[in-house]
Amino acid sequence: MRGVNDPVAAVSVSIPDAGDPPREDPEPRTRGTVDFDTLFEEHFPALVRYCHRLTGDGDVAEDAAQEAMVRFFHGEVSGTPEGIRGWLFRTATNVVRDRYRVEGNRRRLLEANPVRPSPSDGPDERLEREERREDVRRALDRLGDRDQEILLMRYEGFSYREIAEAIGVAATSVGTLLARAEARFATSYRGREADA
Q: Which among 145, 131, 134 has a CA at the least distance from the CA of 181?
């Protein structure tokens, strides 16, 4: 149960019905005390990186991050900065899950749209980096959804409290969940070395 001081509990959302007439806001880029442009500049790059790590596909990541921002912009979302950040990342996670639930096979999408290395690297460095990236992706793919989310959120710089808000657990359990997820990832990653 969420407490009164819980930032996620303080985030409220009201998404207009498709049949509702369009609203005419005097300041369409501001929602209460949250300036959309500032929020976008602060959170969009991290949201895209998070979604990219979650999906392995830059185009899908950008689409999911944009969809989360659009939902924020069109919805009546308010709350603390931490609560809004958690809401954005949770919404992006759900967008990604919904996309793969409908479209299925993430592997097919990753192979169809591989991440392109920077042109400054030589062929050996590009190949090595791509192989490492694939090894990490395979190790992540063998983990459960929650383990993936926890590891990617922590890698993105989320605090334990923010991770707890995003996945719906007590902040005091995040350390244990993170340690277990890291151990499962390490085992999964080492397993790929044994297969080679």
A: 145
| The two structure tokens encoding residue 151 | 């590891």
- State the CB neighbour count (10 A cutoff) for residue 56: 23
Mean of the per-residue pLDDT values of the chain: 77
Percentage with pLDDT > 90 across the chain = 26
pLDDT value of position 50: 92
> Which domains does the chain carry?
1-13+30-115 (no CATH), 120-196 (1.10.10.10)
Query: Which residues, in sequence order, are CB contacts of 159 under 8 Å at separation 6+?
Result: none
139-58-177-82 Cα dihedral, nearest 10 degrees: 170
The rounded distance, in Å, linking the Cα atoms of 151 and 153 is: 6
CA atoms of 61 and 96, how far apart (whole Å) = 8
- Asked whether the beta carbons of 170 and 164 are under 8 A apart, the reply is yes
pLDDT tens for each residue of 107-153 = 555 566 676 655 666 788 888 888 888 888 898 889 999 999 999 88
pTM: 0.47
User: Helices (H) and strands (E) in the chain — how many of each?
Assistant: 8, 2
